[in-house]
Structures are given as structure tokens and as C-alpha cells.
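Reply to dn_fold:

You asked what the input looked like. This is it:
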Amino acid sequence: MINKVKKAVFPAAGLGTRFLPATKASPKEMLPIVDKPLIQYAVEEAERCNIKEFVMITGKSKRAIEDHFDYAWELEENLKSKGKEAMLEEIRRLAQHQFAYIRQGAPLGLGHAILCARPFVKEEPFAVILSDDIIDPEDKLLEEMLHIYNKYEATVLALERVPKDEIHRYGIIAGTEIKKNIFEISDMVEKPKASAAPSDIAIIGRYILTPDIFDFLAKTPPGKGGEIQLTDALKALLKKKPVYGYLFEGKRYDAGDKFGYLKATVEFALRNNEVKDQFRDYLLSTLSSIMSNKEH
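and this is what came back:
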């Protein structure tokens, strides 16, 4: 695949209040799923699509993210001296790409975070990846979105059908399916009530954006919660240019939610070669104990 998108933006300035007190001094994006932080799964997803330039939009107390993707000479020498070559290579690989860090001075929303990336992105198309949304590494969501972008050279949003009782948590689209799982979007509504939603198809945390989104974001007034909403800017863009969506049917974990985070941890542990057998036995034993106690 000839990839015209070479840069990815990772909004990572949120306060992570759902995970307090764990996130009081440590970034939510550094919460581990087994042995990797959330933000690393997101970077590796972009990496698999041959994207090698990354910009992190960070805030106060986010220095750990920068340190994580930097060289760590003392640690590397320790691993080298102990002959742990595989682990050493894993640590070094993270620092081999180009990372930029931009501070979002105030929590003004996702739209503002993306606008902060303008000096890095300039006039190129780019991906936006929200690390809260963990995509199964075996699924090809971002890769499929890039194929669609390369065909239409227009904004592409990741979509997913959601239960009726979760519609109020998402931006919801109206649109026409022009090919299997590819929609031309006609409207979008930010976090509507289920009764007022145009569909059950939600926008999830993957975007391929064209650089003209920056002009729309710059003109977007603060919306709900005093934040600049990306959805509002996309609605304005939609009046001028086509916007497409890819309906994802693979597995996504909402790791910004405690239950979703726990599900991701369990399922990723069950495929981790180092712990999967022991962990499976533990889960079966625990389930057996729970069922036995319920019977009594």
C-alpha cells in the first residue's frame, strides 16, 4: 500500500478522572494493559501502517509519556549486560521514530488538541488515534481507513454500531452506505439522546483528517462543557467537502472506561505467551469457585 498519510496525532492531555487516584500524578495513557501502556498500543497500530512521525498532545504531569518513548541508557546497558537482547531491542525500537510533543495549555477539548498539532502537521493529511480505544492488533481498522483515504482523498472517520443505551456517549452519524461498510456521511450529532439520534452508528477514536480541518477548528466556538468539539468542525467541513466513514466490525475495547479497561486486560493476558496458560487456569479456578459458592 502506498501510504499518503505519514503523520499521526495522539491527543493525550486529558485528566483521566475516571481512573483517579491512579491518574493523579501518572498519565492515564501510561496505564498498562498487561505489559504495555495504552499509548504504546496506539503508536504500534500506526507503526504497522508505515506511519513513523508521531505528535503527542500532552498536558501537565504527562512527562512520563515523553520518557517512555525516549532512549534509556542506564536501563539499556543493564539489559545488555544481562544478555536480554529481545527486551533491549523492544526498548530501543520505541525511540527510533520521530516524536514531537506539544503542550495543550488548557483542557479545551479534542478539537483544540488537534488544532495544537497544526505546526507539526502543516499541509499534510494525518491520522488521529485516541489511545482510550484499543483495537485488537489482528484487526486492520486503520489500514482499511487509509485505503479509503487513498481512494477518495477525503476525511475518513471510524464508525461502529453501538447499543441504544450507549448512543448518548458518542458522536452519531447519518449517511448512505456506498459500498460494504463504507459510508458517505450526510450529518453528525454530538452525544444525542437515543430518541433523537439519526442512527445507531457512532464515531470512534480513529480519524484520517485533511489539513483543511485546521481552518474549521480555528473558527469553531466552544460547545458543550466549554470545549472545542471536533464533531462541530467536521459538520462545518461536511458542508464544503465529502466526509466518509468506515464501519468497523472487529473488536474494540473502550479502555477509557474501567470495565472496558478490565476486559482488555483479561483478553490481552489470555494471548500473552508469557502468562496465558497460568492466567487461563487461574480464571477457570476462580470461576469454578464462584459457581460453587453460588450453589451453596
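The chain has a mean pLDDT of 90.
Hope that clears it up.
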